[in-house]
Structure prediction request, 252 residues.
Amino acid sequence: MAQSAETIHGSKSKSGAAWWVEPYLTVLALGLFGVYSLWLVFFQHTGQFQNYLSPFFSPTEDWGIKVLPALWVLWAPLLFRATCYYYRKEIYRGFFHDPMACGVPESRRKFYFGETRFPFIWTNLHRWFWYIALVVLVFLWIDAVKAFIFPVAGGGSTFGVGLGSLIMLVNVSLLTMYSLSCHAFRHLVGGGSQKFSCADGSPTTRYKLWNTVSRWNEKHGLFAWVSMFSVWFTDVYIRLLIYGVIHPVRFF
Ligand code: FES
Prediction:
């Protein structure tokens, strides 16, 4: 039977923490990430330090379009994350308190249509933002490769490994896992098939792929958080280099 928020107050979530910890931590983390992103958009005009490029500024806006540099990039991953099924759950719980946890009934507003009408119907565009996010991911992989190619005095370049190279590689790997564990991708590779034996292509390959993506999908919430923090951390690291607060570390 459904309980009110008050009656489950004091009970524990699956992780063992009080049920209200997760929604409030979500508000704090997403709120701070949102404020940081806005600060970048309006007050920072570069994310480049030597061969390191912040994920917030990739691809660079040298395509003749004049917008704020971070805004040129940020709308795509932000819309991708804002419409992510996992974040939607967290946002409904943390920001709207509707419902705040499992077993708590939804509020009974007169005009509430869930995600079937305005204002939340747009979140169904998630699969299209997934395609756009893949394009951004390609640029981020190019940046990660460039992070291993260092300029040399007198011209030319050489392969090398710096702390920033590793940070950027880990970041793009986590973002890749976040994208490939997406519910929309799982649906694309097999979730939409009624029967694998009748699916297009090789049924065995499709089944194996769907199985693999399903396993990743179980960890989608984890990938959502670690990839968000890695994007944040990567930008902070590069920004500290830009400001001269720290010096680049090069292993070879
Ligand atoms: S469901 Fe989270 S990125 Fe698609």
Residues 21-43 form the longest helix (23 residues).
